Amino acid sequence: MESKNYGHHHPLLLLLNEDQLLIVANCSRCGEVVSTPCFSCAEECGFYLHKVCAEAPLEFNHPFHLDHPLLLTQNPGYPTGYYCNFCGKEEDKFVYHCSCKLDFHIKCALFTFNIAENNLKELDHVSLQHPLISTENGDKKLKDVSKCFVCWEPLAKYTHFSPDCGFNLHEKCAKLPFKLNHGCHCKHSLVLQFNSQRFSCKICGETCRKGLGIVYGCSPCKLAVHIECVSASLDLVVEDKSHEHPFNLFPRRSSFICDACGTEGICAAYICCTCKIMVHKKCTLLPRIIKSKWHDNRLFHKYFLPDEFRSSDCIICHDEVDPEPGSYCCSHCNITFHVHCVTEDKDSYSIVSLENEDEMPNESSISVIERNDAGEATKIKHFKHMHNLMLSPFVGGYENSCEGCMLPISDPFYYFSECGFFLHKACAELPKMMDVWHHDCQEPLALISDKAFKCQHCHQISNVFAYECCGCEEKICLRCVIALTPDALTCLKHEHPLFFYGVHKAKGKCNACGQPRGVFCCKDCNFGLHLDCFSLPITAGHKCDEHLLSLTDHDDNSYSESHHCDICEKSRNPNIWFYHCAKCNTSAHVGCVLGNYPFLKLGSIYEETGHPHPLTIVKKKYYYPDCDKCSKPCEDVALECSKSKCKYIVHWDCVAPSSLQSRSKWPMLQFRCNHI
């Protein structure tokens, strides 16, 4: 049967049965796979339309947005696609657009219209899923990611329609009253509407959800209330598993400070009469114990901090934690976190059940053989080395490198002189297994050694100690593990402590390389460093000078002719760090001194399958034999046969797998490129 063309240049046929739909095709208006009833081009040019999309009005007034009509258009005027303000998904097909920057998929605009009209016949045959069943079935993606398109609470939190219907929707949200009276705003009724002006919620004060979903609002008074906050205020008694007493609803018109999180609340407060505390509804659900990526030990929620925590800063935002309202703390380390800081990212922590409250201690990497009178371990056995190690204070020199992190020995260290093994005291005391906040996988990390790897964070190639994830097998070098340990850090080139802010919160440039956004920043001044710049060796050797070169943060010589690199003979920016010998007045770019592989242990053995003998990692200083693979001189790190009669030598880059080759614009290249 022929039909109107709906803007198409050929007549369209109405298909009612799936048997008539001979191919898998997409609707030309909404972009989704078509199903019957639908229209197809009579000339078989590949044009298809859902019947709903074809009959969608070109303009209509939506009950949730009475300010302006919604207009159906193919191009709302954006340079790229648009995001639907109901489901949040990106699209570049037809859109219902409003001049106040609201955009909706065709099906989302019509679906929400039917919600307002209480006409959801399309959901009559959709199966319901209960939260207990969804959780027990282990649907982690549904539990943690999927949100209801109306209230934007987790879909699995309440009974919901099967997502197969095309919409994430709680059963209760499909039956919301269009208008209601609420104690938080007695002047007018609250009406279900799109939060087109992105008002913050009058009850919880948050402006999250990016304007998605639906809220209860009052247009004359310009206010909004989240659907979940309205529902919360109707619960008279809340049982909280993390608190020993129930919380009772205490409606009030004035604001209050929540005793659980320390932030302001309005209207719906919940009180524990026994403990005399007042909290938000959402804070009655705060877990008592969490395992956070920001700290190695478990964190406990406390309503009042003990005396030992009375003056401390939050490890995440570095602002002071008020000891009066609730916070999360670690009793082992005497550190605290604001509740909103440590729980803001739902993927950054896991909840520890009360049955597993007792924490298993980290297993030490060392066995103590002897201690001095102060209780300090002076003789140890490390599980990654065959000899007993003796403690020695640092007395200067920097000639030796730590076998754990490959940085110069600049702190107290353990050693065995006969085999030339040196290990920083801090590296030796790291546990065999640990959890770290900066690794996405939830599995613990195990200490390994003598395996070539690329660090997940700094992308440097090394073959000494590392932590390997027991799940994804990603590896992190000890330099990054120590640098990213939650605490204030000291830098020899700066007088104040440095704190980790992350790349998204960091401001300004890195003081070492001049590139934007150093992640370690000073609270008191403008100083900042990248992760890899923070871990630069304080001294390094190079054939250009007989002495060790020292990492230098400023050039006192104002004569511009001296601002050059004595290795590559190119210009050097005096405002970024460089290596310098004060005795010989030698100066060089950081990258020129360190080369591409500064953390590969020279002299160690590397097993390469293409050669019958073990290969030794070397770096020739004066004589550069030709590579047996590419015939070019071996000027950088190379692999040389350990058998003296075999003259086999190859570049590291010629035989190492691509995953173990340096291709990143790490400080070496950054420092070379930042010329005047």
Automatic annotation (TrEMBL):
A Pfam family of this chain: C1_2
Signal peptide range in chain numbering: none
Domain Zinc finger PHD-type: 26-88, 200-262, 313-371, 509-548, 564-631
Molecular function terms, GO-annotated: zinc ion binding
Membrane-spanning parts: none
InterPro entries xref list: C1-like_sf, DC1, Vacuole_Formation_Reg, Znf_PHD
Keywords from the named record: Metal-binding, Repeat, Zinc, Zinc-finger
Protein name: Zinc finger PHD-type domain-containing protein
Source organism (scientific name): Gossypium mustelinum (Cotton)
UniProt lineage: Eukaryota, Viridiplantae, Streptophyta, Embryophyta, Tracheophyta
